[in-house]
Automatic annotation (TrEMBL):
The basal body constitutes a major portion of the flagellar organelle and consists of a number of rings mounted on a central rod. Residues 25-39 form the Flagellar basal body rod protein N-terminal domain. Structural component of flagellum, the bacterial motility apparatus. Part of the rod structure of flagellar basal body. PANTHER family: FLAGELLAR BASAL BODY ROD PROTEIN FLGB, FLAGELLAR PROTEIN. This is Flagellar basal body rod protein FlgB. Its main location: other. The keyword S-adenosyl-L-methionine does not apply. Belongs to the flagella basal body rod proteins family. InterPro entries: Flag_bb_rod_N, FlgB. Keywords: Bacterial flagellum, Cell projection, Cilium, Flagellum. It comes from Natranaerovirga pectinivora. It is found in: Bacterial flagellum basal body. One of its GO terms (cellular component) is bacterial-type flagellum basal body, rod. One of its GO terms (biological process) is bacterial-type flagellum-dependent swarming motility.
Length: 120
């Protein structure tokens, strides 16, 4: 039972790390919106998490977010840059909501653990 509780906390921690990294990557994309030749980057994590959940082999130590060059958004401007500021702003908002939701979930999990430990 304890292993399962802490496994969940570890997965949430990795998810928070991925969201934090994604925030940094989106910020970098926004900062380079006018840089000729710059290619948009993204973070790969959720698919790894989904695959681990589906396979039943969820090991938080194997869940590592990875920064990749975006292969989906290949529409380039004349200067070779493929960053769309509108897309980045939407992704930034989504990521902030995701991060805040994860923080609330972690707080809730720790509150439940505290209640279980301190109750008679």
């Amino acid at each position: 039972m304890n292993g399962k509780i802490f496994s969940n906390v570890n997965v949430m921690n990795k998810s928070l790390d991925a969201s934090w990294l994604r925030n940094q990557v989106i910020s970098e994309n926004i900062a380079n919106v006018d840089t000729p030749g710059y290619k948009r980057k993204d973070v790969v994590f959720e698919n790894k998490l989904r695959e681990a959940l589906m396979s039943g082999r969820l090991n938080a130590n194997e869940l590592t977010p990875k920064v990749v060059q975006d292969k989906v958004n290949l529409q380039f401007r004349r200067d070779g840059n493929n960053v769309d500021i509108d897309v980045e702003m939407v992704e930034l908002s989504k990521n902030q909501l995701r991060y805040n939701t994860l923080i609330e979930q972690v707080k809730h999990d720790f509150s439940r653990m505290k209640t279980a430990i301190t109750s008679r």
